Amino acid sequence: MAEKVSFASMSGPMLAGLIDLPEGEVRGWGVFSHGFTLGKDSPAAARICKQLAAEGIGMLRFDNLGLGDSEGDWGDGSFTHKVADTVEATRFMADRGTPAELLVGHSFGGAAVLAAAGEAFGVDAVVTVGAPFQPAHVEHNYDAVLSRVLEEGQSPWMAGGKLLTLREHFVHDVRRADLRHKIMQLKKPLLVMHSPTDNTVGIENASDIFNTARHPRSFVALEGSDHLLTRKGQARRAARIISAWADQYLAD
Hints:
With 252 residues, this protein is of the alpha/beta class. Helix content is 34%, strand content 23%. It has helices at residues 43-54, 79-95, 108-116, 143-152, 168-176, 180-184, 203-212, 234-246, and strands spanning 2-8, 14-20, 28-33, 57-62, 102-106, 125-129, 154-159, 162-167, 190-194, 217-221.
C-alpha cells in the first residue's frame, strides 16, 4: 500500500511522492532518489521500494522537478537542485515523524544521494545502485543537442519519450559537480551495487566509488542485471540485499 504525499522543492514547486508503507513490523524508513529523467514510477524505483516495504522498511520515492506528477519545469533544475531536493525529502520524512535512516539512489540518483548524505536528516546508511562516479557521466545522453545548448543557452530535448528543455546552466552545473570529496567525507556506511555488464554506466564507476569511500563500505555485484533493472526479479533481488545489509543501521 502506498500513500500519496507532496512537499516543496528547494525552489518552491511541489514535488509529488509516494510512501510505500511498511508491511508488518516496522523496521525503519528510507528515501529513494530515481535516475536521470526516470521518475518515481520507473521499474528500479517502484520495485525496489515496494520490496523494501514488504520487508518492513517504508520508502519515500518522489518525482524530481518537472517530472511525473511534480510541478515545475525540469529545465529549471540541475544536479545541485536534485541534491537539495533529496535533502528536502529527508526533512519531510523527519517532520512527519518517520525519519529516513536509509538513503538509496539509482543511477544519477545514486550520485545525488552521495552528495546529499552529509546534509540529510536522520540518515544513517547510504546505498547506490548503478551510480556514476561523477555526475557529468550523464552528458552522453544529450550529446546531440549539446552544441546548440552551449551556443543558444537552451534546446528542446527528447528523453525517454518526454520533451524536456536542456539549459546551459544544467550542463555547467553537472560539469562542476565533483563527488570525490563528498564520498571521502561520507562518514556513513555505504553499500555500492552495480552490474558487471551494465552498458550504460560501466562497472569502473562502482570501483571508483568503492575505492574512494572509507570503511564501513560494501560492494555487491548485481550480475546479470541491466542498468534499469527491468528484467524479472532484478530489482527485487537488489532490494532484498539492501534490506539485509541495512538491518543493523535501522532503528528498532
